[in-house]
Specification:
- The protein is globular and about 45 Å long.
- The strands form six sheets. It has a four-stranded antiparallel β-sheet with strand order 4-5-6-7, with no helix packed on it. A four-stranded antiparallel β-sheet has the order 8-9-10-11, with no helix packed on it. A four-stranded antiparallel β-sheet has the order 12-13-14-15, with no helix packed on it.
- The protein has one domain: YVTN repeat-like/Quinoprotein amine dehydrogenase (Methylamine Dehydrogenase, Chain H), CATH 2.130.10.
- The chain is built from no helices and 23 strands.
- It is mainly beta.
- The two termini are 25 Å apart.
- 0% of the residues lie in helices and 49% in strands.
- Keywords: Repeat, WD repeat.
- GO terms for molecular function: U4 snRNA binding; U6 snRNA binding.
- One of its GO terms (biological process) is mRNA splicing, via spliceosome.
- It holds the Pfam family WD40.
């Protein structure tokens, strides 16, 4: 039987890991010295529990990126190369590669088996905030502080689609489970859903009263999309693919500050 975990990260540099559903503290991860921007589980995080196995990755405002095991309080390894704030870490579906976004206007792809950087992209004119990989592993989507999203072909390293339409920074990007659509969340308080085959935005959702910090499709459904932001709420939408066809299902008012999904 697999254990389920959830985590939180703090401006102090600490990360905490809890069991679900009893919410008992498993451990406190100590390694960062400043504001932690994100932590992400490896796609097969619960399959191994050896101290040397990498189960999680985290990043912080000082440019540090650390790899963790579920069975240790200390980092397994550090990824060095960023000199400015790293906003997000994202695992490639294969589990071999890790993507990082940085406020130096670039994002990078790392091969963890050989501990090397294999891709360094500088297509955004401002900092890159979020990153998500296509389910089949062939594409990556990035959201930037320049208000644009970009879709990258990992086989060639080139940008193959430009997502233009948001009026402010893009803080969240997420591919749908079937890979045909991608959602973006912005500081303009809207979520946009884009059709990758038609290469166009199919609808815009005025999701929150303040900026959106995160967007995410339900893992096994094309019709459920959740958004979160600085309006202290999380919203769940039912999205039928087609222009304007979306419906708000519910809104949770659970937090006293902004949140990420």
């Amino acid at each position: 039987m697999f254990n389920l975990y959830t985590f939180a990260y703090f401006r102090s540099g600490l990360c905490k890991l809890w069991n679900v559903p009893d919410c008992s503290l498993v451990r406190t991860l100590r390694g960062h010295n400043t504001n932690v921007g994100a932590i992400s589980f490896h796609p097969q995080a619960t399959l191994t529990l050896e101290e040397t196995d990498v189960n999680m990755a985290s990043c912080a405002a000082d440019g540090s990126v650390k790899l963790w095991s579920l069975d240790s309080d200390e980092p397994v390894a550090d990824i060095e190369g960023h000199s400015m704030r790293v906003a997000r870490v994202a695992w490639h579906p294969s589990g071999r590669f890790l993507g990082t976004t940085c406020y130096d206007n670039s994002w990078r792809l790392w091969d963890l088996e050989v501990q090397e950087e294999i891709l360094h992209q500088e297509g955004h004119s401002k900092g890159v905030h979020d990153l998500h990989f296509h389910p089949d592993g062939s594409l990556a989507g990035t959201g930037g502080l320049d208000s644009f999203g970009r879709i990258w072909d990992l086989r060639t390293g080139r940008c193959v689609m430009f997502l233009e339409g948001h009026l402010k920074e893009i803080y969240g990007i997420n591919f749908s489970p079937n890979g045909y659509h991608v959602a973006t969340g912005s500081g303009d308080n809207t979520c946009k859903v884009w059709d990758l085959r038609k290469r166009t935005c199919i609808y815009t959702i005025p999701a929150h009263q303040n900026l959106l910090s995160s967007v995410k499709f339900q893992r096994k459904s094309e019709q459920a999309l959740s958004t979160a932001g600085d309006s202290m709420e999380t919203a769940l939408y039912q999205c039928h693919i087609g222009p304007g066809r979306r419906r708000l299902i519910c809104v949770w008012l659970l937090h006293k500050c902004g949140l990420n999904l």
